[in-house]
Amino acid sequence: MTRVAATRTLENVLRKLGFNRVCGVDEVGRGCLAGPVVAGAVVLHPDRHIAGLSDSKTVPAAEREELFEEITARALAWAVAEASPDEIDTINIHQASLQAMRRAVMSLAPLPDLVLVDAFRIPDLLMAQRGVVHGDQRCSAIAAASIVAKVIRDRQMRQLHAQDARYGFDRHKGYATADHLAAVRQFGYSAVHRRSFSPPALPLEFDTID
Fold it and tell me: Does the domain at residues 9-153 carry the CATH identifier 3.30.420.10?
């Protein structure tokens, strides 16, 4: 995927219209077989430019960590929230992603004036919002939220690997790589696997392994 620098054009236009606290929100881990889906919400400071903001999937891991530190130090506000594998299995991944994004936004203090969401609209928000197609490539606040969520989730997956090294979560972060699928064939699903996700290469009847 080609890296595209996100801009502040949309946020600047909205600030001129009177929206002073413009929040970007995005989620990561939607397509994983294991682990939570994690959402980030970020309100960037209009006078503290952060260079290099892009869709987190296009930013190398070491640079993501550096940008995370800069974002969290210089933003007006930031928050993360998640939906667990059990919640994903109960209400489906789309609804769980929306709930995680809503929780992240509602954790901000004070609440934002307007929320920019990558692609979707979030139900039951208390403030104005706008869905932005390819927002993590076009909007700096959404790109920042994507990076924050990605770094937090990657750290969580490394912690899960430290608890159970059989699946290689530190390498693939829960995505359906060949070595991840091979580990599931050998060991079955773990307690952090999403039972409702079953790639064609895997049978459905694996037992949970604690």
Answer: yes
